[in-house]
Amino acid sequence: MTQKVLVVDDARVVRISLGRILKKLGFEIIEAENGKEAYEAMNAHPDIALVMLDWNMPVMNGYEFLVAMREQERFSENPRVIMVTTETGMPSMLKALAAGADEYIMKPFDESLVCDKLDIVGIAYNRE
């Protein structure tokens, strides 16, 4: 069964870029433009294995989404969450990790970095 990944970013180009990498690795991609859409997607697709989450977005930012998602018992430990953001300061990283993020990618990213982070969080993917 193909694992689902929710890619959450207000920048379409980032969703496309990250989506291409993840599709190549064998994942099914679900997209959201902000935390509110991501929250709706999580409830529509409770089998999402991984969330790739931007921090700075309108409507509901990534941090707010992360906190709201982890407050739900069924999402308290899964899915895995990797922040993919320009928030590069250690306080932001620590805040996200404390709220339930599993890993952190600083933009810009490439396929190799995404694979490294998937390995760290224990998400299997198709290696070519």
Mean pLDDT: 94
How many structural domains does the protein architecture include? 1
Helix segment tally: 5
Query: Which segments are poorly predicted (pLDDT under 50) over 5 or more consecutive residues?
Result: none
Radius of gyration: 13 Å
Oligomeric composition of the shown chains: single chain
Gap between N and C termini, in Å? Answer: 18 Å
Under CATH, the homologous superfamily reads Response regulator
Strand ordering within the main sheet? 2-1-3-4-5
Helix content: 40-55%
CATH architecture label: 3-Layer(aba) Sandwich
Instruction: Give the DSSP E fraction (strand runs of 2 or more residues).
Output: 15-25%
SSE-based structural type: alpha/beta
Quick description:
The chain has helices at residues 12-24, 35-44, 62-71, 90-99, 111-121, and strands at residues 4-8, 28-32, 48-53, 80-85, 103-106. With 128 residues, it is an alpha/beta fold. The chain has a five-stranded parallel beta sheet, with helices on both faces.
What does this 3D model show about the protein?
- The protein has 128 residues and is of the alpha/beta class.
- The chain has one domain (4-119): Response regulator (Rossmann fold, 3-Layer(aba) Sandwich), CATH 3.40.50.
- The protein is 42% helix and 20% strand.
- The protein has five helices and five strands.
- The chain has helices at residues 12-24, 35-44, 62-71, 90-99, 111-121, and strands at residues 4-8, 28-32, 48-53, 80-85, 103-106.
- Strands 2-1-3-4-5 form a five-stranded parallel sheet, with helices on both faces.
- Helix 4 (90-99) links the parallel strand 4 (80-85) and strand 5.
- Helix 2 packs parallel to helix 3.
- The longest helix has 13 residues, at 12-24.
- It is globular.
- The mean pLDDT is 94.
